[in-house]
Write a structure and sequence with these properties.
The protein is mainly β and 412 residues long. 5% of the residues lie in helices and 38% in strands. The radius of gyration is 21 Å and the shape is globular.
């Protein structure tokens, strides 16, 4: 979580959602028919995402011990893992440790947050340094310099890159005036080039004394913050889910409580992918009113490649334990397939542990992480797995080791 819980809660006050109505696919607009898929739930298979699976055990040494709840970014030849305050780089083919990238602290080369943003154009890794800088490192861990952004507080985050431009998202966590902008584009020198107006209304000023209580729920990787206020009202906010990403050279944008993914074109947003949830639609009023939301669905996580879209919906967001549903939208066929389980996709390729996508790559692959203890336990119960060339690299994994990265590709 990048901000403290107070700021996170303050951000949850006047968000709205676009209305979900039945619509016909228009030219250039993809429709994921969640409503129809909900009438035919069945287990998802790993082969629906790709036919080739690689398992990469990450080297374990005192120099690269990975902490709890790691996140992964897969590059063309490298793997970045960040957890807590650390970001490590590993070789994609062998899993060998390459370097620690950056470090937290107050010195001139330190970052404020360990989440890396890879720029495929200059091949550098960027980190946020509050209040208005990005620290730049190469993949060998060498400090390259800083980029000062011409931005007012709060600092935008996350970031994506387009040629010589840097695009950042303003979540407005600190409740400050950001002039109605939700996205901002900067050039390679950090000068502001353009802004995009928000889909959601700006948040009003708030005071910490307005908060009566805060509760936190995990929705897999995303986190749901539920805030009750002294005046009896309540509001929700979802964090740690994809907001900005690139696919096929296009920049995509999706905000929480919005059921449409947009393509960013200059200072405009063009609808690219809509989730039609029909009778399960969670309306804008559900941001503040919890009644009548038990069976409603909210698209939360979206991972997009040129061929497929993996997504997750939360059902019963305000229940004690919301139900997470996984879905796959096939761009070629236009089909949508969903399953009522958050355990992951059944591995019908190698018969291994279920696969849960955590990220996708610019090259069109999906990737996830398996804890080493789960791998060791499964391998011990399946001694025949050592004869499977895909699983053989896992034979030496021990419970205390770094996790295993799973990469699923189309094989085309």
């Amino acid at each position: 979580m990048k901000r403290n819980y107070i700021y996170l809660a303050l951000a949850a006050c006047l968000l709205t959602a676009c209305k979900d109505t039945p619509q016909q696919a228009k030219e250039g607009l993809m429709i994921a028919d969640v409503a129809a898929a909900m009438d035919n739930l069945s287990p998802l298979q790993l082969s629906e995402l790709g036919s080739t699976v690689r398992y990469v055990p990450l080297e374990t040494t005192d120099s690269c011990l990975i902490g709890r709840d790691p996140m992964v970014t897969v590059l063309e030849n490298l793997i970045l893992i960040y957890s807590g305050k650390d970001c490590f780089c590993f070789d994609k083919a062998t899993g060998k440790f390459v370097a620690q990238i950056g470090h937290p602290g107050e010195d001139p080369q330190a970052y404020s947050d360990a989440e890396p943003y890879y720029n495929p154009y200059d091949k550098l890794i960027y980190f946020v340094r509050e209040p208005n800088k990005l620290q730049k490192y190469d993949t060998a861990g060498r400090y390259i310099g800083e980029l000062s952004l011409a931005t007012m507080p709060p600092m935008p985050s996350p970031f994506v890159f387009s040629d010589s431009l840097v695009l950042g998202y303003y979540a407005n966590m600190a409740q400050q005036d950001i002039a109605g902008r939700v996205l901002a584009t900067f050039d390679g020198q950090g000068n502001l080039q353009d802004t995009v107006a928000g889909i959601l209304p700006s948040l009003p000023p708030m005071n910490v004394n307005d908060i009566a209580s805060i509760s936190v729920k995990r929705l897999g990787t995303p986190v749901f913050i539920y805030t009750r206020f002294q005046d009896g009202t309540a509001s929700g906010n979802i964090l740690n889910c994809p907001v900005l990403w690139t696919c096929d050279g296009q920049i995509r944008f999706k905000e929480q409580f919005i059921d449409t993914v947009y393509t960013v074109e200059g200072n405009r947003l063009r609808p690219a992918l809509a989730f039609h949830t029909g009778k399960w639609h969670l309306g804008a009023e559900a941001q503040h009113e919890t009644s009548g939301t038990r069976d409603k669905l909210l698209p939360v996580t979206v991972l997009e490649t040129p061929e497929k879209v993996f997504f997750q919906c939360a059902q019963g967001l305000y229940e004690n334990i919301p139900t997470m549903l996984n879905g796959i939208y096939d761009k070629q066929t236009g089909s949508t397939h969903m399953a009522s389980t958050a355990d992951g996709l059944t591995d019908d390729v190698n018969g291994f542990l279920p696969f849960m996508p955590q990220t996708c790559t610019l090259q069109g692959a999906f990737a996830g992480i398996l804890p080493a203890e789960d791998v060791e336990e499964w391998m011990a119960g399946h001694p025949e797995a050592k004869n499977n060339s895909a699983l053989a690299p896992l034979a030496g994994v021990k419970a205390e080791d770094n996790p295993v990265v799973v990469i699923v590709e189309s094989g085309l």
